[in-house]
Amino acid sequence: MRMTPPLGNYVYEMRRDSVLIGVEESRLEKGKLSGRRVSADGANVHRVVATIDAESQIERIESSYARGPFARSVIYELSGELLSGTLVAMGSRDTVSTKLGRFKEIDADLLLFKALIIAHISARGLDRYTGRVALIDSATLVASSPKLTYFRYPNSPTRWTVETLLGDREQLETDPQGRIIKREDRLRVETVLTHFQELAP
Length: 201
Hints:
Blueprint: E1 8-16, E2 19-29, E3 32-39, E4 44-52, E5 58-67, E6 70-79, E7 82-89, E8 92-99, E9 106-107, H1 111-123, E10 128-132, E11 134-136, E12 143-144, E13 147-153, E14 156-164, E15 169-174, E16 180-184, E17 190-198
Parallel strand pairs: 9-11
Antiparallel strand pairs: 1-2, 1-17, 2-3, 3-4, 4-5, 5-6, 6-7, 7-8, 10-13, 11-12, 13-14, 14-15, 15-16, 16-17
């Protein structure tokens, strides 16, 4: 079973009440996941570059966030049971880390990370997974490890829900190849895949 979504270039549009609020562009290739999300006014930019090992697990992440003149960046690497890194912001450098879950799943707040987690769950033959996921906040770049539940709807195998212990939910819709084609988060922001270009073999 496929351990990753299809390799290629992904473009998503984010809308609230039909108004465009941002665009997310990502690329998944062998050994690498990269992308950026830009607000519609261009004021907020979130970038990620992640290295993926032969088992399709994230092993290193570089991420940055800029809002006008304010910027911060971080580099995370797996270190045993921890995701550890150095955060650079406002001229200071701080060590940051969080504990990894059993399967070492990581979400750096681009949709391709969620698609990768779903591919891993599906490859294990599961329709439901509850465990810690290392989440890297796109604005602060600080990682935490909340317990999340991913589950697939029994009568609709392309629909998934991600739920926190507090009951916050987001709805994901995938296609048969494992691409996320639609997301609706708890703030009712709808993100839709508008373009996909598969990489040449």
